[in-house]
DNA sequence: CATGAATGAGGATTCATTCAT
DNA sequence: GATGAATGAATCCTCATTCAT
């Protein structure tokens, strides 16, 4: 039941928004009553917090596995992190969009924790880039902080337009991103004017 | 008075969200009454629509001036479009963030117009990229459609973290973006391992 | 202008109701502003009172002309009064329906006057019936008071379903009413079973 | 509680009108809160619809019992139908007046159903008259359609002036009506001039 | 475990009216 | 004569939440 509530809430929050989804919307959808909701959750905001946390902790944990893996170089780690995000669209896209949009409704008490985890995720990317710069993988004129923002912004927005069941596969998309990030789009061939 | 309402609404919508901002919040802030609001606007949604439209029409018009300018090549046009976005953060950042977040509350009737204009903006970038590919400015293995999304997603998200009065100037930021987009971050120098 | 306001108000009050018609509905319809309305009328209720009074005073005056006419007998007077009502449907049906429905919104101050006039109209019919009973025109077992109600209720409701431009002419309808009232519908002929 | 709300609403709608009665008026009267109202009714209009329907369905059902009864001839059926209406004044007069006056506020969706039922009631009377004409009970020069309107208009308006606890009993009133309808008021005795 | 009843605070909207110009 | 700006009171409705059972 608790799982059903969470799943339905994710669907509705994504579709209509947190504020626009009432407890009754959720319980109606699963044939339960409002009372049932309050049996499982202290409040609507607590449910939102749970959704946020379970998404972000899972992602962060997977990211840290990638980063810690000594068998991968920085290019591969960057690839894996982007793939981690893109491949989650199919199953966790709704959660992700909720997180980007509804952070405002997280209560003060939990806000710091959640913002901290999101920051950790970004700082991990930034550290990866800094390491890559130090090791000469990446150019030394890039700012790792801005770049971490840029890459994540670009990749995260994919949640809003990419259809994982469309003509472009997840792997192709990740490769596109990596190609742009690594090599840019400027043509340096002989036909260049 | 109408202008004051709009300005206050933009501030509050950005700060607290559309749904979370009551008409009274707005009018209290300017020492007017709720009645006054409804003298100037048919509904709360109409105000939101006005904010959306005035932002997007202005941006689109400026973009089209850039694109039509025959004295600029595609690199310069791309620079100018990114600069157009970034330089708007200071004065119109709040409107922009509202637009990214509150589209859901636009009524069906106006939705198509607004979505159309946003699509136009993106398709203009895409067309610019396609033209650049055809002319050999840009590599011919990039997909202009995905790229247009990527560039705009990356640049648009700047609204959420960039402080125009901070240590990085708008021009520097635009240059960073252009550098990444055009040349990527991979180090190709001799020190490369 | 005042006339235009009254006419439009009558149309709208009939169509949507007094409470449901706003001052703005009225003024919008004639291309004026709310201010204009208040130039001509002290309040919305005053306008309603004006409509009531001008309708009822006109009707009452015509009724009294009929009753005073020494050349007519009671049958003819009854005919004429019913015809007076029916023939007013085309031009004053809207006013009439407003009067039946919106009396509740007349202010205390004017209520007695208007109710008095409506009562006068009914009592005139009652007096006519009493006179007819005394003179042997009408049966002496009828109660003039109930009958006055019955006749007026029946005839007045015609405003709600009769179409003066339809297949039944006003004269025919009046004759029907008179026939029923005078002779009833019971078949007394030989074919009676 | 739901019953208390309906009863109070009927009282107030009859006394002040639908539009003029606020939800708070109703709930204040029974010591409940606005929220309670909306626990039991989706909207104010739904409550009105419920009042309409329960009144009219009950009446229609009873009418149909009368009509189907093979032991009664058309005179008796006409009597019973009029008695059905008049005898309802004491207990359901308020509902009846609401129905005559507030149909306008019924939502489009339910309007057809309710208008249909009212039409059925009238058409049943019309059919009864037609049957009576065919059987020679009633004169063959009467129009059953107009007559059905006339009889119902006359009888239904009783709701507005008849006091069931006054000097005239319900049975007397019904007899008066039937006498007028069947035999008319014209004196045909020898003293007739 | 789960429900149904009840609440109360908040919020969008309507609208008659006033008044300075 | 007429208008536009502003008001404020009233009203419908939503909804998270509580609680006894």
Automatic annotation (TrEMBL), chains A, B, C, D:
Q: What is this protein called?
A: HTH tetR-type domain-containing protein
What InterPro entries does UniProt report for this protein, alphabetically?
DNA-bd_HTH_TetR-type_CS, Homeodomain-like_sf, HTH-type_Tx_Regulator, HTH_TetR, KstR2_TetR_C, Tet_transcr_reg_TetR-rel_C_sf
Q: Which GO terms describe its molecular function?
A: DNA binding
Q: Which residues cross the membrane?
A: none
What does the UniProt keyword field contain? DNA-binding, Repressor
Q: Which residues form the HTH tetR-type domain?
A: 1-59
| Organism for this UniProt entry | Oceanobacillus indicireducens
Keyword Flavoprotein tagged: no
What Pfam families is this protein classified in? TetR_C_24, TetR_N
Q: Per the database entry, where does the chain bind DNA?
A: 22-41
The protein's superkingdom reads: Bacteria
